[in-house]
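Worked Example 4.2. Consider the chain below.
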Amino acid sequence: MLTPWDPVSIRAASMRFRIGLVATCLLVATAGWAQEDAPATPRARRAAPAATARPAPENPQSAADRALLRQLADAQRSLGEEMQQLRDRFDTLHGEISSQNDQADGLDQEVKALRDEVKGLYVESSTTKQQIDGLKDDISAVNSNVSAFRTYAGFFIAVMILLLAVIFVLTVRR
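Applying the procedure from the previous section yields the following structure tokens:
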């Protein structure tokens, strides 16, 4: 792994450096393979093959190229692993965002239900206020009726007492 994954280290400049490094390594690798495949100088074909085949002496440059290729392969593997880890993180993050959206939708539904309940309670309380106002009107009407009854009852009792007094006076006079 070239550098650990960290939001601080993942910047445009460091990413360009990584991409440039990988591109340079691939360029060197393909150039090395091309040199191995093509002979250095074209030779004329011999009519008879050589009696003993000697292995070509190892070039120190090709050993360095192979080491560089191995290092590039390791770097590429680690980049692949980092990419997979990033994909996993993105998938996890996507799942968390989806669950958060679901929770937010659920909360929105609960808020709507509570608003409807509050509206119902408001309508119910306004209806109760209207009923109380109606009862106040009824009570004031009953109060006026009771006052009128008291007045009429007082007159009736006064008339009865007057009649009793007249009857008493007429009986005493005889």
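Residues 1-36+60-143 form one domain. The mean pLDDT is 81. Compare this with Example 4.1 before moving on.
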